[in-house]
């Protein structure tokens, strides 16, 4: 019988404590995390453009090396013993 009033008292006191808490700290944490997510999104988009530029440059270098190898092969074929 004493357990029921004690349980009610515990629930009531916890509800009072929840009502007294402030949401400003929680809101500040959410705002900070949102700012960090936005900064990371900007960094990722910049890196995507850098990767695209690097891919284009590496393809050009590959094509130039392929062309140079063909020229070397053609020069080597023209010489005979």
From TrEMBL:
Pfam families: LPP. It is a lipid-anchor; Peptidoglycan-anchor. Sequence repeats lie at residues 34-44. It comes from the Bacteria. The keyword Hydrolase does not apply. Transmembrane segments: none annotated. It is found in: Cell outer membrane; Secreted, Cell wall. A lipid is attached at residue 20 (N-palmitoyl cysteine). A highly abundant outer membrane lipoprotein that controls the distance between the inner and outer membranes. The only protein known to be covalently linked to the peptidoglycan network (PGN). Also non-covalently binds the PGN. The link between the cell outer membrane and PGN contributes to maintenance of the structural and functional integrity of the cell envelope, and maintains the correct distance between the PGN and the outer membrane. Belongs to the Lpp family. This is Major outer membrane lipoprotein Lpp. The gene is lpp.
